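pinned: reference chain
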Amino acid sequence: MSTWTSMAVAEQALLRRAMQKHQLAGMVQYYGAALRWAGDSEAQPPRSYTQGEARELAPRLAEAALGLVERGRLDVRQVSGPWSDPSARS
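pinned: its structure tokens
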């Protein structure tokens, strides 16, 4: 079992959002803030990411999400409205 501090910033950010029951919309911006907070040398200054910058971060988030799903730490659900259905696991 991994500890919180041994997880990558992307994993921590995804789990924080999941624990708060947020959808993934806006995740790149949230991840950028988490990178700045962690003192990552590649983090952009406090502002919204451009489309290009967001596209560069998306694969890191996808890889982290897949790893968390594989380890049973994150469930992915497809929702069609503002509220998730616990039976809608995908």
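why pinned: The first helix runs from residue 9 to 19. The mean pLDDT is 83.
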